[in-house]
TrEMBL record:
Gene3D superfamilies: TorD-like
One record GO biological process: chaperone-mediated protein complex assembly
PANTHER family for the chain: NITRATE REDUCTASE MOLYBDENUM COFACTOR ASSEMBLY CHAPERONE, NITRATE REDUCTASE MOLYBDENUM COFACTOR ASSEMBLY CHAPERONE NARJ
Region (Disordered): 214-262
Keywords, sorted A to Z: Nitrate assimilation
The protein's name: Nitrate reductase molybdenum cofactor assembly chaperone
Segments of skewed composition (Pro residues): 238-254
Pfam families: Nitrate_red_del
Underlying gene: narJ
Natural source organism: Streptomyces phyllanthi
GO molecular function, one term: unfolded protein binding
Amino acid sequence: MGGPPSIPALVRARVRAAVRRPSRLTPEETAGRALTLRLVSLLLQYPDAELTTARAELTTVVEALPVTPAAEHLARFTGWFAAQDPEALERHYVEMFDLRRKSSLYLTYYLHGDTRRRGMALLTLNQRYRAAGWDTDGGELPDHLPVVLEFAALAGPGGGEAPLRRHRRGLELIHRALTDADSPYGHVLAALLTLLPPPTEADRAAVAQLVAEGPPNEEVGLDPYGTYGEGEFAPPGTFVPPLPAPPTHVPPAPTSRTEGPR
C-alpha cells in the first residue's frame, strides 16, 4: 500500500467534492447561484425589443453581484451588450446561435445528434420538468439552454442543475465555438461553466471528437420526440413507448435537414 496522500492531493480532492455537492451551499449562496443562472438564461435569449430595453437594468443587477468569476464574465458581456445597436445585436445573435451548428443552444443535439436517442432525451427532460411541477408552456423545445437554465434556477442546485451537468460537454463545445468566433457571448457561457464541475480528461477528449466529427446523424424527425429503436437502451427510470408495428409499405426516403438543429 502507498503512503498517505499529499496535502495538495487532499486539497484537490476536497475542492472536487465541494464542486460536486452544490446542495451544501448556504441559503444565501443558493439564492446567488439561482440569480446567476437566471441572468445567464436571460442573456442567452434572443435580443428582442423587451430585452434590449432592459439592458441598463440588467447591467445594474450584474454590477451588484458578489465578486466571483461568473460575475466578472457577465460584467464583460453586459458592458458590450449595453453599447451595441439593437439591430446589430439581433444580427450577431442569429449568426452565432441560429446559423452555426457548433454553437446551437439545443443541448441534446450535441449528445445525440439527429437520432432517435435525441427524441427520447427531449421526452425525458419534459418528464423531469413536469415531475417538478413546472410547465415550459411549449414555446421552446425543453433542451433549449435558456429553458434548462430557468429550470435549474427554479428547482435548485441538485436535481435542477442535473441537466446542465449531463450536457457539460455540449456546453464546452458551445463555449469553444463562441470563443473561436470572438463573440462576447463566450463570456456568458464561461460564467455558466464556472458553476459546474471542472471538465475531466474524458470530457476534453469527447469535446475534441465533437469538434472533429460532429454529433451523430440519423436524419430522423423529432415529433413526437421519437422513440428508442431495437437494441438501444433508455436512461434508467424513463418511459419507453412500445415499438411501432412494421410498416405495410415502403416509406419514402427521408429528406436531409437544411436548417439548424431544433
